[in-house]
Amino acid sequence: MAALAAVHLALLAARVGSILLQPGKYILAPVGDGPKGYYALLWYLRHDSGTHYTGMNYPFGDYYGYTDGLPLLAWILRSWKGVFGLADSTAFAVLNLFILLASVPATLLLYAILRRCHVGQVWSAAAALLISFLAPQFLRFWGHLSLALTLAVPLLWWLQIQIQDAVGRGRRWRRVGAYVVALLLLGQCHPYYLIHGLLLTGSTAALTVVLAGRRWRTVLPVAAALLVAAVAPTLLTQLALGLVSSVTDRPREPYGFFVYHASPGTVFAPPFEPYASVWRAVFHHRPGNGEGLAYIGLITNLIGSLFLVRLAVRWWRNRGRRWRPVLPAPLLAPVWAAGPILLFAMCWPFANNPAAWSGLPLLIKQFRGLGRFAWLFYYISTVLAAVSLWQLYRLLRLRRLAGLGSTLLVLAALLWGLESKVHVETALRELPKFDFAHKLLTGDHYTQALARAGRAPATYQAILPLPYYHQGTDKIGREPIDSTAPASFRAALQTGLPLASTMMARISISQMAQSVGLFASDLLPKPILTQFPSRKPLLVLVAAPAHLTPPERALLRRARHLAVVGTTELYELSLDSLETRRPAAEARWFAQNRAALLTAPTAGGTVWRRTPGAGIVWNTFADTTAEVSFTRPGAFTRLRGDALLYNSTLPDPLPTDTATYELSYWQWLGAPGGLPWVEVSQHSPTGERLEMVSADFREAVEISGQWIRMNVVFRLTRPNNRVRVLIHADTRYVIDDLLIRPRTTPVWWLAADGRTVVYNGYPLSQ
Prior knowledge:
The protein is of the alpha+beta class. The chain contains 24 helices and 23 strands. The strands form 6 sheets. Strands 11, 12, 14, 17, 18 and 20 form a 6-stranded antiparallel sheet that branches. Helix 1 packs antiparallel against helix 5, helix 2 (34-47) runs parallel beside helix 21 and helix 7 runs parallel beside helix 9. The longest helix has 29 residues, at 216-244. The mean pLDDT is 91.
């Protein structure tokens, strides 16, 4: 095993030797979500302790486990720093080595599993290297580093085998304890490892009983031990999370369950060139989603196909009796579990069966990246291929064809090794170029710029990056522009100011709504202003001005320009500039002029307007029942699927109407799942579609309590056009107060309490 570890290290060093020698100089994942992990770790080591993280989601912060910043490693380094001290570059080095060198114990564990399957030493060593270097986690170096731990599944499988092999109750339960501890620690690297253990060991427990047949009572103690080992870590983690986090409104059904799954193209077809192009040319398959990548290799494809043919032949010959193949004990249950696990990773049977999906526990729905569970199939199928090749070699040797058997092993290793080499090069070839960790670790350009402007970091309470990014609820969200997140991370680390933006998982919906509400119009109060711990201003960092949205530009006009730092600009935004008195002023105006306004009947009731003109569409869905409503009782609710909110001509349009209309409605943020998007189309009297505009909620900012406003502007080209408002959604949604009006025609109505004035759909309340 020492020799095997040395060979693995030598092969790894051939590709990333410079990183292994100077790991503190590099950022393994410089784009996407990668820099976030480095920032989270550094911020935590500098400013936080325990489980709470303050580097993002200011002023609330959150549990550190939602940062994708390897909590286990962060807590270990924080403890070390408290005793011995720790430089930032050392923390970078430890993180990089932890990720890169995780493949070494993975190879050793695979070797141990293959030896337990009675495979010869040399072939076990070769196969372990091949499986390890073709592992799909290598492709995670470009994003989620915490998911790049190749040792996770081999470790869980090896510990599972130890439980099965244990002789005596005491030894077995001690090994269960070791498994539970290991899975808990892996869960503190990334929660998905908890479900890997649940699926692998839980299915092994069930199949151990099923495959025992009439002897099922004799295997119950082992199955019970496996089941406890599989379930206990997840339950303990959930309990601990409930104790350390008081947030109760995290997303229950996050977006992606029906999107981020595996497919035949992601599992059986190579994802790297030149093999990918050849494969697509031959089989004409779809590449599939990147989250489902778990390519098992050409050799495993071939051996797996032969294995299935062999099963079918044996079943046909024996008419279903004694047809199961002879497999080593560590492989017996996992081989039968591999198929159902892969189907689950492919979102079957949930993709086209909403009832089956609705019946899933909320805990499972939280893990929307189903394709990551195909990694279990990868390891099981590749180990099965290695064992089958060894069995073939043994059979040929028994028949005095050892030379042929050795030749087949060598050819298989060469082909397998070529794919592994290309795979590793594809994943790692660019990493030695990313030697710019110093951009995060050193420099004080932002503090110097503030000093030149007569300011200090202590003048401010947080950084507000623009374009604003906010990810984590899977309801409303905007991904950062490539330059925005790294610039904001550098500024935060240099100034010691937290970020009033978010790139975390499962953030509180109400907290995110308050944060995004900073950009709302003056018709809505901004409740987050009462959450800030002080009246210090915000430091606004503008990294990509060309990408600013209209609400962001409006907010920036309230700020004072301070300095330019490279390609970024700094502004000072006082909290007083965000206060609004307009709701009260508009409500007073309506009270004073109500008698002079005109009334207009609509489906939702009476509205007031200033002058006569084109008709108004207002629907409160009063004839429906819903658990919540916005300004009047009733709301449109749908479990899932498309819905027509309006499908008719507009009332009383002008004879030559070319008016610009605004469609708006309010969506309840408390419904599980994501938010739908709307499509507004115009159709001629003969049914021909003439125009179409659409929008979604991800960048909406008009938020009132737990409701968010969607609006679409369109021009009615002809008075007799039929207007069609179609909602597209994959999950349950609640919609209220549909309003279609000419943009030049303001309207008012009273809410259900008879006192609150509603102006163009906005409740005028403080």
